[in-house]
Amino acid sequence: MSQPPAPETDSLSRRQIVLLVTALVFSVMSFSLNATMLSPAVRDINETLGPGAFAAMSTPFFIAGAIANVVLIRWSDYIGRKRVLIGILVVCVLGTVLCLSSSLPIVMVGRFLQGASNITYGLGFMILRARVSGATFGVCCGLMASINGGVAGGDAFLAGIMTDAFGYRSIFMLTSVVGVIAVVFAWKWVPADEPGARSEGRMDWIGAVFIALSVGGLTMFMSEGGHGGWTSTPALVWLVVTGGAFVALIVSNNRVEHPVVGLKYIRSREAWPLIVVTILVVGSFMVIQAFVIPSMAEDPDSGFGLNATTTALLFLTPAAVVQICTSPFVGRLAVRIGFVAVLRAGILSTIVVVALMAVFADNKWAIVALMVVYGITCSAVIHTPLMSLGVLQASDEAPGALPGLANASYGIGFSLGFAWAGPIVGSGTDSTFQHAFWTCVAIGFIALVFSFVLRPKPLASDAVSPGGSTAHQPSH
User: Fold this and answer.
1) How far lies 326's CA from each of 42, 322, 378, in Å?
2) Ranges for the Major facilitator superfamily (MFS) profile domain (predicted)?
3) d(Cα 218, Cα 205) in Å, to the nearest integer?
4) Which DSSP letter does residue 268 get?
């Protein structure tokens, strides 16, 4: 199947677009709330389920997202986007119910099922790409990307209040309701796949197993390496699994007509640098809001010693508020000047912001102010193009392959982030958080270098831009 070009005009009425976007926003919320709302609950989770429980719960969550993205988004090329979307939302609801358990192993299973719903982002962007034009596409991309940082900041604040008053399980009770609503909205308002929109042939399940082992093995290697040492037995075992699976994937790729991942395209500068940049950006900047800042705010010795509600109100909510306000404008701008150009600007500006955090790490109000700026530079200016480029840079022959790999890179990136940030944040020295910020700056600078290696995908025609705009789209 060739990837259909973005429509020059919207194929849906204004009312249908509003309902579609509403359904997709609730779909991505079913995943994002299960990630963002737990940030203020780190201490309560560790006290209730045992020391290190939060990190233990995070590993299966991100591994599942990585595996589901490389397998299920590609599968949607064959069986349809809507069918996969509804199925994964149901799985997410089941996982959320399991997270109410008082047993850590059961909670970890629930988090694994929740994590698979990470694919709602990739599926959502692909559904939008096929249905709306450039101007609308840019705004919708910004709106959906903004949900990745929370719902106008209210979710983090509400999570802090709920955690202090009722405990972290109340968060899962709320997200289960959101998940049920998402299932209903997706079933009613997401249009059925158009006739002829599905790929010919059949899913390469053998290749899917190998790519899942490669991505999952790499994620586990980073997780085990960060906690037990990079030369520890578990880390080395996962490294061998990753290498062996990748070799098998290469062999399998050359023997099937429709491989799960077209390695020839992935080797191009239109694809692999995006994967590297995603891993590095997530492994540095996004770990700040998800782990470093909440730990810093609540640490009574090296940090500010605040409770969950105050942490959310001062540090997490403002960043999410400015993100959801600015992301639609960033998406509209990206359609005009290029998604890659906006991504580079976001990385560069965030490096500056995080460097200032390192300098003023002992000043609570300086960090509060810088988190507001962070909400613009990272949460909006980086997130919006980064989450869209998987679809925009995808090959025409296998449109679900690169979005799946790009989204899977989020899980790998978070595993990398927790691997280096966990030991540093847990060291308990006076320079703990300053050290963490400077490490983010170093990794972010490497990401900036690779962003200049990334080559924007050439236009399919002069009439349609990568964002779907009818105006000519500059590459840089």
Assistant:
1) 28, 6, 11
2) 16-459
3) 20
4) S
The answer to whether the beta carbons of residues 62 and 115 sit under 8 Å apart is yes
Domain boundaries, the chain: 14-204+256-453, 205-255
Give dist(CA 153, CA 319) in Å, integer: 7
Q: Does the domain at residues 14-204+256-453 carry the CATH identifier 1.20.1250.20?
A: yes
| C-beta atoms surrounding 255 within 10 Å | 10
Closest CA to 390 of 278, 472, 261: 278
Q: pTM above the 0.85 mark?
A: no
Cα 273 to Cα 327: distance, rounded to the nearest angstrom? 23
- Cα–Cα distance measured from residue 144 to residue 27, given in angstroms and rounded to the nearest whole number: 10
The single residue listed with the structure tokens 């958080």 is 433
CA distance 347 to 377: 8
pLDDT higher than threshold 60 for residue 459: no
Q: What's phi and psi for 99, nearest 5 deg?
A: -70, -10
Sequence-distant (≥ 6) Cβ neighbours of residue 49 within 8 angstroms: 57, 102, 104, 107
Task: Please identify which residue in the block is written with the tokens 């939060």.
Answer: 54
Closest CA to 210 of 71, 402, 403, 84: 71
Residue 413 C-beta-side C-alpha neighbours within 13 Å: 26
DSSP 103-116: -HHHHHHHHHHHHG
What pLDDT shows up at residue 463? 32
Mapped onto helix, strand or coil, the DSSP state of residue 190 is coil
Tokens at 57, concatenated: 């719960």
DSSP state, residue 316: I
Listing DSSP states for 288-349 in one string gives IIIIIHHHHHH-TTTS----HHHHIIIIIHHHHHHHHHHHHHHHHHHHHH-HHHHHHHHHHH
